[in-house]
């Protein structure tokens, strides 16, 4: 009796989970389906087949979408920005976080509070003057404003790495010190290898932020050949309004790298989110 | 900054003076010329080819083609940022009606010297084209192409209803249109007879037909709210109401977009439409034998039959370093030889995409049009007649008023039209509100307030003082530390060395900019001219109220800047609904996924995946999913709604549904917070549940008395993060609202959107900075408030407060 009740409960749970997953996944599926439709089919809504199944399957949409807006260049630019931002964040934040976590110096805790406080500051407050700074040194319409800032550390990653450094027993480091390690060697050879998962989380987050950043490129980039994917896709939406098959093909191409990254590094994704409570 | 801009201006002036002779001597030196605004559409291939040809003929010039124009123009923000950065393009293809705005701000170079020197025959240009590029007696752009709006009518459909000729006046137009409209559901259409705003007509056409004006002769007064305009808008609204109301029709309009195989006129979904000559391009491509005709748009009985023209012009930014070469390129693109070349290459290109026919674009010069259409005749007699009708129209065509407030005038008339058609305001009210906004802008431009220039030396002095105090406090602490302890000196030195990057970044990117933006919020600053100290006027404008006349002659208090209140309301609406909804959804998903059943990790992946789809891709996807006519969501819910005799929501085409639509899109990513909730749920010890069960608590009680209290730190965290996030929402709203409009009736104008528009579209950096600070303070207050209240309800297991 009890067993049967349990069983029917389990079936109901599965049912809810399946329906829920469907609701969440169908839009993605529809994105892919539409990306393979002909233009005429995107307008047809007479039956579910027309809505969900591309008939005929038009792979060429991808090639055509790539050709229309310079999506290949956009890909390159997005990667360029993401790679440099990741490098900048890793280099700067590791040192800053280590200093906050392990080294004792006057004013440390007060300054750490400032770091935390800057996380609350909306970027819009500094947007205009920062733009003017970049304009003045002639970096508008270059990719530099999109990544240079990351070399000066970002509050969120400093916080994240500091939390990780704090979990490492002091003894390990002290042992290294006794062996005659300086601070640089202690960081590179002892500490960083120990917080590899955290570094991977940083890489993932920074990648997602750079990849998804829209306001930055919108403000700084004008040339067609410097557009990032987000900007390219938006420009594409603007120019090809109504050509949904191309728009969806471009959207799929933009989403794919993120999904691949997610499946490859799923564990670190979830660890990073859990520890900091920030969504990707 | 001040000095920098002065120097830049001086340089520009000197450069402009010497440009002709400099170009003479440097003629053969290799240079790079950048041109902006040539769209990437198929129908501009010939122009791109012509640019390449120019490069071939002038081997020392390398041409960079940048910032393609969209359906209307280069994003004004793109041009502004380039001008501000001192690196504008050398030549830009710009919508003519916006040229005066840029000219008034000194961004474009007058071309009179070139025009006179090269003996350009200005008489040959249609007056509507040439005069539109003139501001204060100087010409700022060479008119490149033009267009005209006509009534397209589908003869086959008209015949079916017994009409052998196009409608003669407004009455017939509305009446016939209603008769030819076929509805298949509450807000579904199979065919629309005539919809005033569908295509390309705008209030300008109907207002002018009805004898209205938009600006006074001298351009200092906005006349938009005159009764003739109100009557025209009233007629538009009535015409819409007769076929089911503006919002419903708009859903049908929005379905296909224009052009290509899905053009509504080509596919026979609309019987009559007022649209530009550019549609002919698609007609010859997709349905050259379409049985249609065009006519001058019908006017009200006894009104003046007229149309209006727009088009683009080639302008040279004032800071261009190669004005002479840019002028040569402009001449090549706009005059006979180059136009012929473009047409020829376009024709060749069309052949490669199975398009057998080619119709040249309308040039702004009478004689050139004659030659073009002789050289490239229409494929059949009907089309030839159509083209002749268009050419005849050009001489009685009007153009939008030339004014430095052109962009504002355009945006405001468009918004007023939407507000009136959607029934939010009466036509007269909508127009009065718009006229007031335009008048404000005109006053600012023609009677600028006499603000003193900002004293940068003071700003720098105060900034330095604050900085010195902060550093002083820290330095004192360091000195004290060094005195008292010797042990940790090396450690402290390394500690400070390691945070140096952050410290530097903080000063350059946070502290300095915050201070400067605070200063800007008390300034009037358009980037091109030096900042002026305006006291608290920005804040007065944002928060202030003033008395305005009502329709019936009374006076009433109204906010000075209704948009500000609108954007605050929109943002709070989204946050108030979105934050709790997102939290409930996220927690519900997490509780489902906390179950221990087979395949749970698959389910988790499915729920989580949408949250990592890039925001821009999400926005584009949902813009499509929520398309009222052909989108997936309405496809699914329509049958259910129709059972209840309800129409499907119009989503991003409706001021009521656009925010729910946006929220729906954001909820798709609710799985993102699931991981945090899961961590929280996993952290609750089983013992509590067991104890509760022994006490006889059912699942509901256990949820409210165990789960929720134990999760309170997580709830608190998500609340704080959620509120901060929602208050700064921008990307998704920006993309689905098709800028520069901010959603139907501004219903998606969120704070950051308005801030962005002020800064980078209206050149009001001071106003934008004030907005940014208000946003900052709102966030600060809300966050502190949440921390305060949290003490009462958040329970931390280890004891201690929030």
Question: Any overview of this molecule?
Answer:
- The complex is a heterodimer of chains A (280) and B (802).
- With 280 residues, chain A is mostly helical.
- Chain A folds into two domains: 61 residues, no CATH class; 208 residues, MetI-like (MetI-like fold, Orthogonal Bundle).
- Chain A is 76% helix and 0% strand.
- Chain A is globular and about 75 Å long.
- With 802 residues, chain B is an alpha+beta fold.
- Chain B folds into four domains: 212 residues, D-Maltodextrin-Binding Protein, domain 2; 206 residues, D-Maltodextrin-Binding Protein, domain 2 (3-Layer(aba) Sandwich), CATH 3.40.190; 69 residues, no CATH class; 187 residues, MetI-like (MetI-like fold).
- In chain B, the strands form seven sheets. Chain B has a five-stranded mixed beta sheet. In chain B, strands 9-10-11-8-12 form a five-stranded mixed beta sheet, with helices on both faces. Chain B has a two-stranded antiparallel sheet with strand order 4-5.
- In chain B, strand 17 and strand 18 form a beta hairpin.
- The longest helix of chain B has 32 residues.
- Chain B starts with a helix and ends in a 9-residue tail after the last helix.
- Chains A and B meet through helix 1, helix 2, helix 5, helix 6 and helix 7 of A and strand 2, helix 3, helix 19, helix 20 and helix 22 of B.
> Helix coverage percent of residues of chain B?
55-70%
Helix content of chain A: over 70%
Shape of chain A: globular
The fraction of residues in strands of chain A falls at under 5%
Rounded to the nearest angstrom, the radius of gyration of chain A is 24 Å
Can you name the CATH architecture of the largest domain in chain A?
Answer: Orthogonal Bundle
The number of domains of chain B: 4
- For the record, the CATH architecture of the largest domain in chain B stands as 3-Layer(aba) Sandwich
**What is the residue-mean pLDDT of chain A, rounded to a whole number?**
84
Beta strands of chain B, count: 20
